[in-house]
Amino acid sequence: MTYKYDKKHSKNLLPMYLLAIACVGAGIACFFFASRLTALLVTAAGVYVAYIIFRTSAKILSSKVVTYSEGCTVYTTIGEKIQFDWTSINYSGVVTNGEHPGIVFMYREDEDKIATIPNMFQGFDELVAEIKENTPFKEYTLADDEPNIIAHLKKLVCPPEEDDEEAESNETADSSEN
Fold it and tell me: Does residue 44 carry a pLDDT above 90?
């Protein structure tokens, strides 16, 4: 099944488009009161900003998640394609607090791949149900010092090495006593 980005959830698209139009309009308006060179430079800058805005919004709107019986493919907002097999996902779940509460994620430890999926996709509840059905899904509550799920996963995957250093110093002390 294909889950596409839902345009209705994006409150920032309309202001972004208005900003792009305003940038180009400001450049054109400069032709009435500024020198031609200045007006041309301002117009060129406005067109460039508008291009960046429209390119970015196109990438956002093209993001999607495609699920199939063996796994899923996530097409991100930066144009990256991340593939997951259901059996290779080590951690998956929903984040209940932090910077982005309600975000769903999948993490594959052997390739260090993570995909975070906000609730801005059409059929988001069905997508969550599919992920729950096929992966080790659970709810994650982040600690105060963890701003996002990546920081939480770092603690899970790479625990602090303080215990190892203490154990090593105890072994050294024990061997020196013998």
Answer: yes
